[in-house]
Amino acid sequence: MAHPAHCEHEEWPGNPLDAAREAFGWLTAGDHPVAVDGRLFDHLPAREIPVDELRDLLLAQGCPRQVWDQVWSHVISRARIEGGTWTITAVGLALPMLTSLAARLTERYADDPSDIHAEILRGFLDALQTVDLAEGRITVRLRWAAYRAGHRALLDGMDGPTPRPPGFHSSEPKPPAGHPDLVLARAVEAGVLTRTEAELIGATRLEGIELVDWPRPPGLTYKTLAKHRRKAENRLAAWLAESDTSPDDGDPTGAAATTWQTSDEVTDDESWSQRVAKKVGGGPANRPPKSGLQGRG
Hints:
Residues 157-178, 241-297 are annotated as: Disordered. Mean pLDDT is 76; it is low at 1-9, 167-178, 245-258 and 260-297. The radius of gyration is 21 Å and the shape is globular. It has 297 residues and is mainly α. α5 (85-105) crosses α7 (138-159), α6 runs antiparallel to α7 (138-159) and α8 (180-189) packs antiparallel against α9 (195-206). The chain has helices at residues 5-9, 16-27, 51-59, 65-82, 85-105, 114-130, 138-159, 180-189, 195-206, 222-242, 252-262, 270-280; strands at 35-37, 48-50, 162-164, 169-171. A hairpin with a 4-residue loop joins β3 and β4 (169-171). Helices cover 57% and strands 4% of the residues. The protein has a two-stranded antiparallel sheet with strand order 1-2. Strands 3-4 form a two-stranded antiparallel sheet. It contains 12 helices and 4 strands; from the N terminus they run ααββαααααββααααα. The protein folds into 2 domains: 14-160, no CATH class; 175-284, no CATH class.
């Protein structure tokens, strides 16, 4: 006699990222795991490579950037044409960076983070269908699509009143002081920064991504991009100084923005980015600066 259908679903993880990890595990289990032909890519073994091993190879510190683009272009192309298995494969390859983003965005969020995690995953899946594979730096583009979606969900969660049982009383939410992602997102809402400017500052000042690696349209030089970032940081610092979110209120993001504003530096010095990130309250992730993947999925 067949088991009732609900029994099969009782063990399914409630968190969407955990569910994605389990689904990816199914693809790599057994005698015939989903694999790619390593001969299609530079610097990878010339054999069939199971996709979990492929993820580990991408995570290796010495993996060249062009290999990431080659692999992502291949996997995304197959996901767009075939869907299903290859969409799950894309999510599985990205789980290290998605779980890292989820942990960062919800580290001071007191409520259930599942909705935010779901939006991070949705932002990533949407980007799978829209990211331009010819422009390169695909990992960075996917990462920031997921980040933007998670950001919006975090703001929605922080802006609503918090129910307190019994009696269903509610209290006004208190934004976590010094949370750099929230400060940048609120600056976008206030019209101080464009979404692209906030992403640029967050990526290159807080996430350890070098300015030279930021995806920019053809014709926009490194020096011009640096000047655009400086102007955006000046506006952010001025807004923080005039608003309730200021360095005097104990918000280290304000102090860091002031530091950005007063510096005349236009080059993307790694140690400078590390000092800024420390002042904002969250150092660069513990990974090679140019990597879009962190840890294990």
